[in-house]
Specification:
3 helices
Length: 102
Amino acid sequence: MSLPKIDTKAVSVSLVVSIVTVVIPAWLFLDNRFAHAGDVTDLKRIQLQQFKELKDSQEQGQRNLRKQMVSDKVFELQLKPQPNQVDKALLDRYKRELEQLK
């Protein structure tokens, strides 16, 4: 009794199809799990832009707050009926600072 003859061409084709069927989906799955360099660069650029906008907004808010505080001090000193030399010096200083802040 002899063994059936194996068609090596069919086995080769079957082996290639099996490998392709397993490798390609695995490769696509792994490729989608990791961040791509372009995606990371875009995300970093967006975050840096948002950080800059937030920083600029905070700095503007701080300037506005300081302007308001200095303006209030100028107002208080101008309301004094008899300002002394220290009050006059402070008033001059606050006025200069207010000009610089504008």
